[in-house]
Amino acid sequence: MTPHNWWPHDEVGHTDEAKKEMIALFGARDVFDTPKPERLLKRVFEIASNPGDLVLDSFAGSGTTGAVAHKMGRRWIMVELGEHCHTHIIPRLKKVIDGTDQGGISEAVKWRGGGGFRYYRLAPSLLEKDKWGNWVISEKFNSAMLAEAVCKLEGSENAVLNEARGLRRGYVQVNRTGTSTRAPPCLRSSPIPLPSSICINSVCWMFFQS
Question: Is the CB of residue 92 less than 8 Å from the CB of residue 76?
Answer without folding.
Answer: no
